[in-house]
Amino acid sequence: MRRMIGTMGDRLLRLAIGEQPAGACVPEVGTLCYCKGGYEYRFACNGVCTKRTNKC
Question: How far apart are CA 40 and CA 50, in angstroms?
């Protein structure tokens, strides 16, 4: 019961103040990883290479 109340409180708090990504990013954030299939893949804040809509 206590766990359920705790998770409900966390959800309500997230709705009230919103969810923001952490401020700590890897130094490579935004730099190009590679081009594949005509799309750019760039480093995200957490260091994972993600697909962008930009064409290369």
Answer: 8
CA separation for the pair 40, 52 (Å, rounded): 5
Q: How confident is the model at residue 33 (pLDDT cuts 50, 70, 90)?
A: very high
56: CB partners within 8 A, 6+ apart = 32, 35, 38, 39, 40
CB 6 within 8 A of CB 19: no
What pLDDT, in 10s, does the model give residues 16-26? 877 666 567 88
Contact 31, 22 (CB under 8 A): no
